[in-house]
Hints:
The structure is a homodimer.
Chain A: H1 2-22, E1 44-51, E2 56-62, H2 64-72, E3 83-93, E4 100-114, E5 125-131, E6 136-137, H3 144-152
Antiparallel strand pairs in A: 1-2, 2-3, 3-4, 4-5, 5-6
Amino acid sequence: MKRFGIFIALCSVAATSGFAMAEKAIPLPAPNGLEIPKDYKDWRVIAPSHRTDNDSLRVILGNDVAIKAARAGNTKPWPDGAILAKLVWKDRKDENWEDATVPGKFVHAEFMFKNAKKFNATGGWGYARWLGKEQKPYGDDASFAQECYACHTPVKSRDYVYTTPAQTP
Amino acid sequence: MKRFGIFIALCSVAATSGFAMAEKAIPLPAPNGLEIPKDYKDWRVIAPSHRTDNDSLRVILGNDVAIKAARAGNTKPWPDGAILAKLVWKDRKDENWEDATVPGKFVHAEFMFKNAKKFNATGGWGYARWLGKEQKPYGDDASFAQECYACHTPVKSRDYVYTTPAQTP
């Protein structure tokens, strides 16, 4: 009877793990309370970029408010409600095109949420980053955003945004 | 009376030009008859890439059929109806981040349209490219597609597609 009990217990564990794997876990909020936008992978492109100081490829996406602003050239300042997402991958040499760098391992997704009043202490933008495919929130406590803000301060005159929307027809 | 007639005629020309400028011209079809997808700039991302042999940054987008296939790993072969768009920009050194390459001048938008039967002669894909911000169709006649097909033949085992969909969470 004891053995049968253990068998049942193991089955329960297996079933629970199965469910956990089937349903994708929702990432935890960032330490400053910001939540990852649910549909960010479906957002439209603002620009790609490539950084050789840390060997990474990036694509910068925008939510509807940000895309509308980017296309209208309405980015100084960006309007409240705009969210910019940056998806970052480590460089990988393409196996079929020698001189092409393509996305390797997924590094992180990071976000800037524009709300001039709410995020006044950090230049009108709220910052958050989720690491890896596990989407682990970055930062030990809410002070992590000071690090983001410091790095974006050199482009204060561009409303703290490095990205220039790519030209398109 | 004659002078008044000329004045009216000039006003008509001015009004017509005004309308022509207000409405964005629709690009001509490619020499093989393929038309540029109207909403391609709103498509979702499959991957960015960077080529150092011709100093260009790229972003590869997909229509809904292509995105569904890419996310499901259903790309050998890609399903009929899938369209891949590649937007290409010349490299530009970012003025605020020394080691970042960002999009400069828009080079072209090029497309692969999957239809195994219709495009059987070119590996199941129809090819087209529109140059510059003017979106001038590439190629003097329909034979231009042989050039595209030849360049994609080394990756026949990948259904003629170089791009590997980028990993995401």
